[in-house]
């Protein structure tokens, strides 16, 4: 996706049966975070438990990618961090911010120190609290003072509130209390100074969370790709509303909240997740290939020898390859992505500069060709628009036909994906009815304004088929306005009003 919308983060958790100098929580967490770097590059952090340390649980977090945060460029420094944070159990986190500042204080895990070991905990989460504004007010009225404008801090207070009193609460009860208060998406990893480790997923299961056993070690991560370095580990998704508590080589599964339906974010399969991850038993690579095959069914051009498929790197590659195979035309790398570009370059507001920094053209591939340019999705569409212009002007393509493996994004996300207003969405002004989707006339008008010869979006009903899950198991609210939570429905109405009245601020702040 040229727009670079971001997932909020990645999680990791480990509980080891027989830890030792070469097998300890910090090293396992480091490896699992490294495999999930695509989910967040702003900061990386871990908390580990070690009963032989005075600091029973201890947290290390730094800004930057995993390698930088853990200083892998200096062997002795890296080993020093690993030694200091060695332990039997641990949790880890990677952050990409949709809210809050770029400063270390916002990095996760969040540790809350307490004199009593069962009240001393650390946690990290992936998601977004949709009723954040209301809950913040509630805390304020109870004389809480929020230091940071951050839903992680809010969650920390609500977890603490469940532990008030003399009696230690079972973890499923702590989180059962939270689930009654919170509307939104949260996959969460938790560790306390009693060495109890827990992983859990909200009752709708918006964000992925997988787990597996390696001998008697328990491993969990946002994506199953995190276990790739450890050979063949059979992985499963944590069930929505389920909490898994791990200690000493044993796991206990409990239910902390009822789950009447699920709402897995469809974007995981389309864009976010690594192609070699499997979520809800549906492989991401296969889902993307299915999207490409399906696009072929909707092709309107009379395909001849001048056509080539050019996927926008990297997510659209399996989609483009499958489309090309079905149409019997070559899939060519006419656009190359600079994989080593720094975040500061990518974040520039200058569209032309951004495209130049990020993509380069292989002119010999594009010249005089009718290009079927394949994108996984279009949100704001600014980067892809710049790319289209360059392919035409500098690549000298004869025609450009844009093929999008996702329906138009017409509604904001209140569950942790960085698209929070209707105004920023490219297709929204063109489409009259979000429920009915884009019409041929609307699509033609958008194609003309966007500077492409034709434009095809996949319709909404093809998405569950390509993923291989029933439609009512998925969240597709940004495509069809069917928000799966009460607060989501309410915020959507606010977003519509804001768009009508020209209000620019994020709907959930
Ligand atoms: S609204 Fe869209 S991006 Fe947000 S969770 Fe639902 S499907 Fe995913």
From TrEMBL:
GO terms for biological process: 'de novo' IMP biosynthetic process; purine nucleobase biosynthetic process. Its EC number is 2.4.2.14. Pathway: Purine metabolism; IMP biosynthesis via de novo pathway; N(1)-(5-phospho-D-ribosyl)glycinamide from 5-phospho-alpha-D-ribose 1-diphosphate: step 1/2. [4Fe-4S] cluster binds at residues 265, 413, 475, 478. Its cofactor is [4Fe-4S] cluster. It catalyses: 5-phospho-beta-D-ribosylamine + L-glutamate + diphosphate = 5-phospho-alpha-D-ribose 1-diphosphate + L-glutamine + H2O. Gene3D superfamilies: 3.40.50.2020, Glutamine Phosphoribosylpyrophosphate, subunit 1, domain 1. The active site is at 9 (nucleophile). PROSITE patterns: GATASE_TYPE_2 (PS51278). Keywords: 4Fe-4S, Glutamine amidotransferase, Glycosyltransferase, Iron, Iron-sulfur, Metal-binding, Purine biosynthesis, Transferase. One of its GO terms (molecular function) is amidophosphoribosyltransferase activity. Binds 1 [4Fe-4S] cluster per subunit. The keyword Cell division does not apply. InterPro entries: GATase_2_dom, Ntn_hydrolases_N, PRTase-like, PRTase_dom, PurF. Residues 9-249 form the Glutamine amidotransferase type-2 domain. It comes from the Archaea. It is an enzyme of class 2 (transferase). Transmembrane segments: none annotated. CDD domains: PRTases_typeI (cd06223). In the C-terminal section; belongs to the purine/pyrimidine phosphoribosyltransferase family. Catalyzes the formation of phosphoribosylamine from phosphoribosylpyrophosphate (PRPP) and glutamine. This is Amidophosphoribosyltransferase. It comes from Candidatus Iainarchaeum sp. The gene is purF.
């Amino acid at each position: 996706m040229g727009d670079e919308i971001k997932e909020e983060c990645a999680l990791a958790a480990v509980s080891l049966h027989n830890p030792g100098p070469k097998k300890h929580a910090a090293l396992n967490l480091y490896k699992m975070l490294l495999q999930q770097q695509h989910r967040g590059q702003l900061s990386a952090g871990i908390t580990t438990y070690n009963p032989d340390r005075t600091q029973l649980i201890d947290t290390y977090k730094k800004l930057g990618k995993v390698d930088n945060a853990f200083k892998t460029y200096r062997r002795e420094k890296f080993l020093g961090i690993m030694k200091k944070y060695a332990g039997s159990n641990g949790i880890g986190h990677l952050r990409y911010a949709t809210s809050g500042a770029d400063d270390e204080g916002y990095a996760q895990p969040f540790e809350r120190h307490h004199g009593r070991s069962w009240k001393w905990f650390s946690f990290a989460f992936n998601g977004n609290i949709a009723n954040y504004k209301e809950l913040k007010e509630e805390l304020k009225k109870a004389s809480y003072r929020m230091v940071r404008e951050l839903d992680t801090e809010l969650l920390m207070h609500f977890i603490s509130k469940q532990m008030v009193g003399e009696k230690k609460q079972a973890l499923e009860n702590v989180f059962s209390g939270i689930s009654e208060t919170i509307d939104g998406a949260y996959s969460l990893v938790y560790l306390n100074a009693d060495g109890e480790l827990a992983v859990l997923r909200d009752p709708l299961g918006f964000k992925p969370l997988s787990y597996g056993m390696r001998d008697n070690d328990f491993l969990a991560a946002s994506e199953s790709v995190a276990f790739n370095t450890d050979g063949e580990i059979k992985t499963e998704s944590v069930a929505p509303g389920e909490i898994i508590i791990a200690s000493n080589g044993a796991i206990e599964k409990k239910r902390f909240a009822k789950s009447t339906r699920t709402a897995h974010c469809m974007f995981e399969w389309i864009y976010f997740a690594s192609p070699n991850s499997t979520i809800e038993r549906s492989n991401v690579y296969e889902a993307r290939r299915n999207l490409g095959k399906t696009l072929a069914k909707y092709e309107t051009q009379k395909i001849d020898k001048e056509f080539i498929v050019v996927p926008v790197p990297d997510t659209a590659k399996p989609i483009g390859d499958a489309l090309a195979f079905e149409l019997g035309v070559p899939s060519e790398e006419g656009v190359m992505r600079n994989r080593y570009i720094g975040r500061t370059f990518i974040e520039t507001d200058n569209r032309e500069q951004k495209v130049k920094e990020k993509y380069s053209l292989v002119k010999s591939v594009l010249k005089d060709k009718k290009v079927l340019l394949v994108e996984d999705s279009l949100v704001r569409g600014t980067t892809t628009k710049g790319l289209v212009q360059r392919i035409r002007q500098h690549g000298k393509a004869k025609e450009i036909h844009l093929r999008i493996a996702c329906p138009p994004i017409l509604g904001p996300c209140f569950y942790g994906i960085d698209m929070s207003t209707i105004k920023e969405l490219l297709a929204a002004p063109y489409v009259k009815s979000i429920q009915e989707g884009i019409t041929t006339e609307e699509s033609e008008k958008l194609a003309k304004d966007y500077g492409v010869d034709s434009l095809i979006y996949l319709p909404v009903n093809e998405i569950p088929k390509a993923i291989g899950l029933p439609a009512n198991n998925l969240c597709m609210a940004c495509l069809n306005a069917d928000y799966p939570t009460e607060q989501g429905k309410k915020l959507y109405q606010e977003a519509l009003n804001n768009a009508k009245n020209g209000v620019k601020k994020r709907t959930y702040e």
